[in-house]
Design a protein that fits this description.
Elements: E1 3-10, H1 11-14, H2 24-41, E2 45-53, E3 57-58, E4 61-62, H3 64-76, E5 83-85, E6 88-96, E7 99-100, E8 103-106, E9 111-115, H4 129-133, H5 139-146, H6 163-166, E10 168-172, H7 175-188, E11 192-198, H8 205-214, E12 220-224, E13 238-242, H9 251-259, E14 269-271, E15 274-279, E16 282-287, H10 296-304
Parallel strand pairs: 1-2, 1-11, 2-6, 11-12
Antiparallel strand pairs: 3-4, 5-6, 7-8, 9-10, 12-13, 14-15, 15-16
Helix pairs in contact: 7-8, 9-10
Length: 313
Amino acid sequence: MDCKVFVIVDFDNFFPRPIPEIPINKIEFLFKEIVRDIITNVHNVQNIIIRIYGGWYQDDDLTNRASQLLSILKLISDGIFPVVIEQRKIEGSIDMVFSLFKVAHVWYNTYQERSGLPKLRIAHANVGDHCSMNKNSCPVHILSRFTRAKSKLCHVDGCLTKQDDVFIQRTQKMVDTMMACDVLSFCEEQNVGGVYIASDDIDLFPAIALGRNINNSMPLFLLVLNKNDLIITRRHYLILILKFVIAMNKLEEVRREIASFADDENDVLIERDTIVFERFGKTLSFRIFEKMKYCMYYIMAKNCGIQLFLPKK
């Protein structure tokens, strides 16, 4: 039976830079890679619904970033869908998300700017002795004092600049919650061949786990970007087919799992917080969470396996 696949794209997670600084072909490449991976893994897919999440409204006005992205999507959409493979036509859509999948209400105020910085605390164990003895000239200590209060004045004599006059914080609101809600909604839909999540935000894991509980037969795909707080490779993406996980794996079990798809099953090294192995002649270095004995992503591998895709640069 033909099916549809829902795609959740955490846009700022992949493209944090201003839109004018992002080559259009990079944005197009991301979507084409997602489509390619879905077609490879969900053979009966008939419709691919890509939904792009972000802080698109400041108050009730569309942000400049949102307007710029809308213009780009109009340029690239026709080059992505439809996809014709072996006389089979796969339809699709790419839309920015302003509402939940099952709730028509438009969520405004998803992008906010606030004046001032939060208080910055110093990791004193990492500060050199020279800085500790010269706190009045050390930038680390100066910045820490400057952020103690938004009304704090600049340390330069005679300068009346306040902290909240010169710094702003830009934040997204409700975006992670919208993605989490839609994960659950998609898992309740009929004729769905999978939910594909393009984000490495671990805040979504509880929703992914609950989605697996709602529909334990539906494949969940996760596309992870190169980030230091997750498993990383040099400029490679990981695609993990997730299953709901209820148990932790020991590192030795992790090593055995990795050995199953390394070039040499006897050449998988665990060095402190890093796993190193070769695949297709390339050395891949994966970092394990420093504060955990076990690696969250490889726990998932134990239950369902990991598929590695090395896309073209």
